[in-house]
Amino acid sequence: MYFFISQLSISDILVISDIVPNMLYVLLNNGGTITFIGCMTQFYLFSTSIASECFLLTVMSYDRYVAICDPLRYASIMTKACCVKLAISCWLVGFSIILINVSAVSKLHFCGPNIVDHLFCDLLPLLDISCSDTSLVQLEVMLLSIPSVIIPIMIIIPSYAKIIITMLRIPSNISRQKAFSTCSSHLTVVSIFFWTLFSVYVFPTKGENRVMSKMLSLLYTMFTPLVNPIIYSLRNKDIFKAVQKTFFYAYTSSQSIRLFYSKTGSET
Questions:
Q1: What pTM, to 2 d.p., does this model score?
Q2: How many beta carbons lie within 10 A of that of residue 235, not counting itself?
Q3: 22: closest CA among 264, 221, 238?
Q4: Which of these, 47, 39, 53, 42, lies nearest to 18 by C-alpha position?
Q5: Are the C-beta atoms of residues 174 and 165 closer than 8 Å to each other?
Q6: CA 83, CA 261: separation in Å to the nearest integer?
């Protein structure tokens, strides 16, 4: 579980590093410029992290499914080698799928004012300013959404349905609460992430207000990476205890240094 959480953190760091610096520049200067290659690079890295996160959340749901529904075989199924292979597969598939999408968008012609009415280079704003026929690209995006979004949802929902059924059959309330606590953090992250993803890309409102579109984009570029560590940290006792120990060690160390300097000061 902690290994996949670390991979999820890498995905969040990639999103923030790719989007936030240029976004802050645009907001502070009421606009900005970016080269075509820079725009495509930003779009590729951002889309790759989003697609990889979809697969990582799917693998994490399978990990929780094995832990709850088949706990005696968990250690033999989710081995270190298996976890590494699953993580590498998530990243490779994400990079490969998005490469097809970005290559199709990069072949479009942009002959207008080339003003992207958005906070970063995203798919829908780029299609809006293109002079080419974007119907083929939109069809390609819909087909690519099947393996990157629809299939993960089809895996996550049955997994959690089986998990809930298994938890309801647990006779002990303490064991049931412990099983629920191991899944509640991941289920919360999945709900936030896929809800924002579906609201922006899968079921976008026709003629949607530009301000609303920008606000929704902030949910999965800034809000989701912000709440992920908070959710996993506050709802995980091990991480919470580790944070407490770290702060306690930092506090005791600072007090020792102060005492040392005060004693040396009095001696001099």
A1: 0.80
A2: 15
A3: 221
A4: 42
A5: no
A6: 49
Q: Which residues of the chain register pLDDT less than 50? A: 268
Q: Which amino acid is at 133?
A: D
For helices 2-29 and 80-106, the axis angle rounded to 10 degrees is: 30
Query: What is the 3-class SS of the chain, one letter each residue?
Result: CHHHHHHHHHHHHHHHHHHHHHHHHHHHHCCCCCCHHHHHHHHHHHHHHHHHHHHHHHHHHHHHHHHHHCHHHHHHHCCHHHHHHHHHHHHHHHHHHHHHHHHHHHCCCCCCCCCCCCCCCCHHHHHHCCCCCCHHHHHHHHHHHHHHHHHHHHHHHHHHHHHHHHHHCCCCHHHHHHHHHHHHHHHHHHHHHHHHHHHHHHCCCCCCCHHHHHHHHHHHHHHHHHHHHHHHHHCCHHHHHHHHHHHHHHHHHHHHHHHHHHHHHHHC
The reported pLDDT for the residue numbered 268 is 46
pLDDT of residue 110: 85
Tell me what pLDDT residue 167 has.
Answer: 84
